[in-house]
Amino acid sequence: MSQLIDLSTLSLFLLVLLRVGAFMMAFPFFSTFFIPPNVRVFLIVAFSFYLTGLLPHSNFDVTELNTLSLFILVVKEVLIGVALSVSVVVFYAIVIY
Length: 97
Known about the structure:
By secondary structure, the protein is mainly alpha-helical. 70% of the residues lie in helices and 0% in strands. The protein has 3 helices and no strands. Helix 1 packs across helix 2 and helix 1 (7-26) packs parallel to helix 3. It is globular, with a radius of gyration of 16 Å. 10% of the residues are buried.
């Protein structure tokens, strides 16, 4: 049976999805109640697919990681996404005022 997608591409997509999802959910203009949750999820997944296609292919193998290092990698991606969102909000506030 042939694989449609290899494990390294899937792991790269999931890491991008974590970062983009954390960025979008912490971004105040995107996380308001004006945008329905299903539209938010669709936009996050679509943007993650787009960004994953732009990234160069690497030989990152998630099966070589133990549980602790995988957990640290996931937390790092989420924190980077939230930090990017907060920095955009701070920059926006500086520009506006």
